[in-house]
Give the backbone structure.
Amino acid sequence: MPDITDTHEPDPIVGHEPVGKHILDFLERRIEFGIKKYGLPVSTWNGRDPTVDNLQEQSDGFQYAMQAHLERKDMMDLLTQALPYVIERDVSLAHRISQILELEKRS
């Protein structure tokens, strides 16, 4: 696994889809989920220690982020292996896979 602790990312380029709306939609659904599960939304002075809740959630999130990073590396390895076969069958798909692999090399 490459060491990403001090890697510099290039300036962003125009992408395919803004993520902000997805974040807002996700948060809205999570609030609704919490209300259905607990009968009320997260609120101040609710009897819980938000620092402990946050530390536990961030710890879980960091583990999920590392899992995603490792699985992404595996997926890139598989795409690299599959590219010669894809080139023979679908040039446009092969071009897109090549773009993805090129972006991966930069990170």
Summary: The mean pLDDT is 88. Residues 53 and 59 are 10 Å apart (CA to CA).
